[in-house]
Amino acid sequence: QVQLVESGGGLVQAGGSLRLSCAASGRTFSSFAMGWFRQAPGKEREFVAGIIWSGTSTNYADSVKGRFTISRDNAKKTVYLQMNSLKAEDTAVYYCAARYRDLRVEDTEYTYWGQGTQVTVSS
Hints:
The chain is mainly β. It is built from no helices and eleven strands. Strands 2, 4, 5, 6, 9, 10 and 11 form a seven-stranded mixed sheet that branches. It has a four-stranded antiparallel sheet with strand order 1-3-8-7, with no helix packed on it.
């Protein structure tokens, strides 16, 4: 079993930055690909960014490319999402998720989920 706890959300003005963290506990963190997803009110959950177990390969949604950066520290069992140049449309609940082995963009492919952290960007 893996437990995931997100932190770092909050209220920020458009153009600002936030860094989300997702701390994992339980089974071997380094075996998992990690993903960040988000869900805005009235919308479906969508993929934001993902990173493979080694950290050597990442993937981003087109809407966040060049603004968001995903990284991980396997020694600390933590994955991060650095969000810069935030826009009002980035407002959502952000979730981290874990799955064994390879990176996927579909939320149904992820086994473990955190409880989410709210990010609100004011325009």
